[in-house]
Amino acid sequence: MRAVASDLPLTLAEARIVAGDVTILESISLTIEPGLPTVLIGPNGSGKTTLLRVAMGLVPLSSGRITWGGREAEAPAKSAIMFQRPKMLRRTAAANVRYALAAANVPSASRHERAAELLALVGLEEFGDRPARRLSGGEQQRLALARALARDPTVLFLDEPTASLDPYATKTIEDLVRVISARGVKVVMSTHDLGEARRLAGDIVLLHRGRLIENAPAIEFFASPRTEEARKFIAGELLV
Fold this sequence. Notes:
It is globular, with a radius of gyration of 18 Å. It is of the alpha/beta class. It has eight helices and nine strands. Helix 2 (93-103) crosses helix 3 (111-121) and helix 3 packs across helix 4 (137-149). 40% of the residues are buried. The chain has helices spanning 48-56, 93-103, 111-121, 137-149, 167-182, 194-200, 218-223, 228-234; strands at residues 10-19, 22-32, 38-41, 63-68, 79-82, 155-159, 186-190, 203-208, 211-217. The strands form two sheets. It has a six-stranded mixed beta sheet, with helices on both faces. The chain has a domain at 1-78 and 185-240: Rossmann fold.
């Protein structure tokens, strides 16, 4: 896993999503650079998941543009996304990873070895023969992460990867995010947990009602928020 300079920056310019009479994203302009994780925060319904799906190319823009490395193109082949509630295939943990490797066009001769490496990376090396749907919630999230990494991504999108997990499972996922980021993968993740954002983020993107409220380095954002919405959100107040 390593960052490819030509894939980044990822730039959204006046990105807008409209469904009927509802505006889901309102003229988002944002540049995502290589480096530490970019963390999206904001109330439920603020547009975090939609923004991740747009960046991954899963949701078309109503207007605006997206560029990768300065080029208007689809999300690069070496990008991956892990959804908040990933589906487990009705097969073993190892077979789930091998399926993802096959989908990523990894040669069949190397899939068993690569699957074992990915399971070891996420701490599931002893669970390869266990049915994936019998794993705990935290274990399933780690398996989903191993499947996403099967694409050997340069950019990894994570949609609230620790939602509904207990503190131990949350720490395990956060530790893995640090390991993946240290290997040169650009992580872009959403979270509802401000503590998690403080622990992981290199930079923060605050969304509210589909609008970009603030984008700043994490240290600066938490120490000196520029907007009233950011100050209220950090203080735990409701944004309306």
